[in-house]
Amino acid sequence: MEELKLKYLKGFLTRTHLCVVDFVLKLQEWESRIRGCYAGLDSFNNNDFLKIIIIDACFIIELFLRCYFRNAYCLKNDPILSKPWLLDDIIRDLVLLENQLPYFVLEDIYKLAGLNPEFPSFTTITIHYFQHFNVQNINSERAQCPKHFTDLLRTFLLPLSFDFVQEVGNAIEHVYSVSQLSEAGLVFQVSESKCLLDLEFDKGVLKMPCFHVYDSTEMYMRNILAFEECNYSGQNYITQYLIMLDFLINSEKDVSILVEKGIIVNWMGDANALDTMINNLCKNISMYRFNSKYRSLCKGLNGFYENPRNKYKAIFVHEYFNTPWKIASTITAVLLLLFTFIQAKDQQKLKIALEVSKDMFL
């Protein structure tokens, strides 16, 4: 990988009128600010530290440019673009919280390079790169001044405006699952909103935006959760959304209902794998204090299920119509009861007719 980084560094330098020394001099001006973004750098001297930063930063920028203009490259000759498995490994490394470069370093080096005016901004090529590799629900209008790529992935998922107010009070300990709510008569619908966090419950209908789930989704989300845990304890919106999913999804059946309604697109294929992924993501997270919107949503869902009419309907559906065998058994029992009732009425009619006839002849 180090050899490939140097090749990409050379490729980036050919695009600009500057040389490595120019970048090093600029990085020396930013060094204290860059070091302030990290902990435990005492073992790195100035030269080693700046060397790592400049090689990694120029490699990332050149990689993003080649992906953006990939049609202009001969994929067979490119040491990375020609190897999809290597591209997958690289994007995983770029997302890991412990591997981050400050975003301002990448953006300022890109500006310093003085590329032709027709070149897009660094944010544009960054968004294009993550869109190309199945990072869904990207809201480019939110991509402003992130700290690094993990922060950028988080901002992609946030709404443009917040009506969330963090509430202090008793934690939400339980919400009924998708299958339980469905049996009680609650309707699940896919929302037109592009923001994953935009959950709406009104008059027995829960609307949820479409969530594309890939094999890589757990890795993205786990790093975002870790980042929120460290930096956004009062604004951990992605964490709260995943906890809501954890409440709603407790079995393969719950997943299947959401897939059937178009709320989840399961590219993992296996409902059990998705159920396990959601439940594992929220392990060791003790925060169940939701923002005001989600808190109201939880109360509304629980209140809907616990309404006596809905609750007994759910119990009836669960006991008698929960599986194909139960449905068949219930229908058979009803038919037998109906036939018995009809037969009993016919026998009663026959008995009355015989008695009338007997009276007539007598």
Automatic annotation (TrEMBL):
Membrane spanning residue stretches: 325-342
InterPro entries hit by this protein: DUF247_pln
Domain of life: Eukaryota
Pfam families named among the record's database cross-references: DUF247
Keyword Transmembrane helix in annotation: yes
UniProtKB keywords: Membrane, Transmembrane, Transmembrane helix
Matches recorded under PANTHER family: BNAC04G53230D PROTEIN, PTHR31170:SF23
Name of this protein: DUF247 domain protein
